[in-house]
């Protein structure tokens, strides 16, 4: 079976459309395609989205060419053909949404200039590029009415009745419905109302029960996915309104809003560049074009859905929601759906195999039953005469055959994966993990390696400067620190200028007139340090003019600015990784505030200080400056040599509580944890030892050394690497790729920066940080860790293992029911007392056990299937919807992390599962076969109701076998199956509901379900035989495989 299932193999992410189409074609027997393929990708919609991207690319290319050609002619252009619509004019605006859309989407510089440029657009939108929109509710409502909201069209939430209708599309249920209708008509015609309607109404009631239970389950799943989808789309941006910076949801943005963007942000709506530095935009998500676009005052167009690859800027929103190309693309993409998961596809393969076997058995069963009827009529000489009773008998045979297909084609098998994943995703949300792609849930359970960031994942990301070496003076920083008074005035000024101007953060005044620091934790720590030294952020920013900014990125590991000073002259400031910035310095400020050459003992002192800080697990940064000559051009790069070192700061970022225990748990679970960080190697080693990641047998390496190794060296080195410091994004990507391809590991990777996107995409599971992560990182990730905590990653792994194991339990349970139901009906229909098969299955000596009933034994023992259509439909519901609810929603336990990981090539249907399935199937089949053969004699079931009572006993026994087997399936290898069972409310509810309905069907619905009330003795026998399956399961678990 596993070799056949390889045909259904798809990747956990990034599968080609061809691979997705191939497995669909392999699904030969699908009862209800709409339901089976509901949670799979809509490939036609994806082709539509790809065509839209190509169209966008062509539109933008033409627009850019036209705007370039028109650029030289734009001076003096006037708006001769544009008229402001009356409704817009009445609202107080001088430009309409369609005109704004045509300016930005068309990259129309000519129109933009005619409207007075960016400032003119701002005036016509009644906004300020400095203070943003006012927060007056009426004004915002009016703006929303005229220009629309920043939301995209989403597929309508289907009602419960839609899922009822969808469940009714099942081909086999439709055929059974026709059978029920014919049975109803013929029965009423022959026996009258209501006696003749019982069989037909019984099938109808069973169909409706199956349909409503299925629809309820599917509807609940759709609600869960809708809730999770809303969580995925929560994106906040920095906006200025009423002169205050604040965080706001992108869905609350309106034209005229002033938005602040930085590296890794997603452009939230179409708009225009107001101010900023070195802005590069990645438009690939919209156009498929991978080359970044420079956005400047001469090319100010920013399109919704694109990503900021470098730089930072301020933009004005012009067009929102479905008026943007991104809005239209998102509406199409949302209909494209999520990729199906490998388990979903594999279980479609299992369903196909079982379906083909079931169809074969159904056809043979029907043929044998019809043949027996025809032979009987031939022997009676009535083959030319057909009565209504015989027509009903023929119809019943057909209904049984169709019901065998209903039971045999486990349509719920692939959907059980979806149910389990939906359940796990909802629970993981409570555990601070947002799953963006379904496949990540199950893949995480197979992971063998975690490559984790240090900052914010293993540490708290609450940073403070605790040590410094300014002007060669090493000092601990506390509230009582005297550093300010000890520094020369000139050095203090340079330090504060460096901190407050060379930063990606800001100190702003909020609406409560209190200082608030915006920026990354590192920037926040430095700005707090500057404020503690008596610095004034706004004053420092006004004292000089920024003329160039090179934002920090993890490749250069530094950032820099160039200032135009108020007395003239230019000064560059840089900060970044201590050893890198220090290497670019040739001078240093000494304790007297004098600039002296950096050599000899001074250089050694700084290097020792860096190592000392790093060994104390502090993050070290070096701050430096240089005076530039007047010939410097803002279009050129900031120099990288000739700086004067101001000092070193040591930033404390404490290890998160519980990380050490989580790392130990991973090690026990067979998962290797590696730290990959951009920090100093000594800092990384100190933190790694504190977390329990770096052991005596492991090694720590710097990215620069790693990237110089040859493949033969990497093959020996990579298994030992536990820490990689000063790593670049390319190093991280290389490590992940090597682990996946060369060492066949299933790799989970954490990341938060824009440059982490390639590694997140390459990994089997990309984990982005919800707090510190950029939108680019989140977009590339499969799971977002909402609290940035390593312990949450371990929880995700635990849930992943739980999903995988739960599906295995359900498959084991369903395969057992499938095999027994097929064999029982097939042998019961085909096997008669005169058949030689009897002698091969039961010893001849057993015929003498009941000599007084010899005639009974020689008569046909089994003339028809003991399980009727109604009973089989009930069994189908037990094993399908109810079984999935019971077994596929088991919560995880700590024992899961004591098992070895499945890895990349683990067999889904394991030898352990086959052992349990075949053992239980054999027991159940032999018991039911024995009851068929000897039940009447053993229990003295004579008279006209003897056959009906026996069949009821068999049905009851069969159901109780499944109930007790359901309990046994909670553990595939362990003896104790009751542990935690009573804490699982869903499982207990399903078992209780099944038991209640079984009693009602047997005792109260005999006319419709072809049953008769059983005596207490027969109930105890049914329960006893079912219960015996549990000790059988214990014995089976002791058999090694």
Helical region count?
Answer: 40
Q: What summary fits the major beta sheet?
A: 9 strands, mixed
Quantity of strands, as a count: 26
Structural class: alpha+beta
Distance between the termini: 17 Å
Low-confidence stretches: 71-77, 832-863
Helix content: 40-55%
Query: What number is the mean pLDDT?
Result: 82
Radius of gyration: 36 Å
Q: Based on CA inertia axes, which overall geometry fits?
A: elongated
Report strand %: 5-15%
Written description of the protein model:
- There is one protein chain.
- The chain is an alpha+beta fold.
- It is built from 40 helices and 26 strands.
- The strands form four sheets. Strands 10, 11, 14, 15, 16, 17, 18, 19 and 20 form a nine-stranded mixed beta sheet that branches. The chain has an eight-stranded mixed beta sheet with strand order 8-26-25-24-9-21-23-22, sandwiched between helices.
- Its main location: membrane.
